[in-house]
Amino acid sequence: MVNYIQLNRSQLRIRIIIISILIFMSSCASAPKPVVSIVDHDQSIDKELVQEIKQLIRDTYPKLLTQYNMDATKTIAVVFDKEYNGVAYASGSKIVVNPEWLHKHPEDYDLFTHEIMHLIQQYPNRSGPSWLTEGIADYVRFKYGINNDAANWSLPDYNSSQNFTDSYRVSARFLLWIEKYHDQNFVKKMDQHLRTHTYSEDLWKKFTGVALDELWNLYAVEPEI
Question: Which of the listed residues 91, 114, 137 is the one where a domain comes to its end?
Fold first, then answer.
């Protein structure tokens, strides 16, 4: 009788896992591929690179829609603007890139993975700290990037000069550590609170059991990911 009950429980767990996988696959399939347009004011970006960028966006964006925000824009304009002096930024449904950066770093097209996450985020003004916004975007680049190794892009090892407010890759690595040791859905939860303008520093303790400053101290002692 015990073996029979155990068998039924085992079969039930397997069925639950299969159903969960099917539901996830179904939700992924339902996420539409975005319409991607290219506006090249420079006219010197390699055409094959442009196609790789478009394909990256079309393949990755539906995954981010499914995981984070199905209401995000489905139309994306990529603008290569030689008058822009930064690297890249995202606003509304547009990503603006300095073409000179891609001329010098043609392997670094996962910068678009970072930028399309900003389109997904759509956080209202003053919804939370900017270091967390950028940390989440680089966390997503680390998780979903397809060419980071070739671009020599990685999350930095911890060192004592860092702080969680350093933003970008430093903050991203901290978030990855939190998901490994405290809450595997932490980034998704924080993303939702930022988007709905319900973020507060109390959420760090709510989701992990540890306040933000103390979390960083624990990370500093054992930062392995």
Answer: 114
